[in-house]
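Internal tracking record. Fields below are filled automatically when a chain is submitted to the structure queue. Please do not edit lines marked as system-generated. If the sequence contains nonstandard residues, flag them in the REMARKS field before resubmitting.
Queue: standard
Priority: normal
Entity type: single polypeptide chain
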Amino acid sequence: MTLPTRAEIDLYGSLDEAVACEHFLGKTLDEAVAMFEENSLAYQEDLMWMGPRAFAFYVPAVTRYLATEAARGDSDLVSCMLGNIRFRRDEVEFALARDEVRRLIEVIVSNWLKFEVDESIYGDLLTAYRDLARELA
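SYSTEM-GENERATED OUTPUT FOLLOWS
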C-alpha cells in the first residue's frame, strides 16, 4: 500500500482533516509509530477524521506502538482507540481496516495489564474491547 495522498487524508476540507494532513501527509508507518511514541494522545484524534484509506494505512502504526514497552501505561490511547473504532466501524470502507483493527484489539486485550487502565476513570474497557472483537469477527 502506498502512502496516502492529501485527498485520501482530507476528503471534505474540514479543519480536522487539514490537521491530520499536517501531521501525517508523507509519513511512513515507521514515522507514524515514532509520532505515537512521542505523543499518542495528540495524534490519535487524526485517525478519527482522516479518510478511510488513510486510516487503514496508519492504524497499523498504533498496533505496532501498543505492542512495545513504550506504550506501558498509555491508558488514554487505549480508551481513545475504542471510540475511534466505534466511530468508524459503520463506514462502508471500514472493511479496508477491519483485519488490522482486529489485530489492534488483540494486542490491547493480550497486553491489558501493561496499559494500566483505571476502571474508575475509563469504565470496563476490557469488556468493551472483547465485545467489539466479537462484533468484528
